[in-house]
Amino acid sequence: MTGLLINYYETAAIVLFGVGFTTLMFHNNLIRKIIGLNIMDTAIFLFFIAKGYIEGGEAPIIRNGFKGVLHYVNPVPTALMLTGIVVAVTTTAFALGLTVKLNEKYGTIDLEKIMEMRGNKNDK
């Protein structure tokens, strides 16, 4: 139990990922699925940034001599997550654009209703 309290950023990231995953899997509304995907993205970003953080660490800019590896925060997870955020935003924009087009074509954003309509078209 103490491990969960010490690593509360990682614990929060795991809980957020679970919330996003259940939202993605159990809702038929496409907007809710996109929101679930965004929650999962945010959880992953939080997890990796928390792993790269060092308590009391400084930015890896060497001034007044090198202080040792453990004194500096690792910049790689932060840089990777910055790239991930850009990818997540573009994926969200693309998914929302597809949702708008699906709504224009089928008149709904409910995935089950869209699949029923597509099934009826294929039967004819």
Features of this protein?
Helix Hairpins; 5 helices; Multisubunit sodium/proton antiporter, MrpC subunit; 74% helix; 124 residues; mainly alpha
Describe the structure.
- The protein is mainly α.
- The chain has a single domain, classed as Helix Hairpins.
- The protein is built from 5 helices and no strands.
- The longest helix is centred in the C-terminal third of the chain and has 32 residues.
- The chain is elongated.
- Keywords: Membrane, Transmembrane, Transmembrane helix.
- InterPro entries: CPA3_antiporter_subunitC, NUOK/Mnh_C1-like.
Chain-wise SSE layout:
Elements: H1 2-6, H2 8-26, H3 30-52, H4 75-106, H5 111-123
Helix pairs in contact: 2-3, 3-4
Transmembrane segments: 6-27, 34-54, 79-100
Keywords: Membrane, Transmembrane, Transmembrane helix
Membrane topology: Multi-pass membrane protein
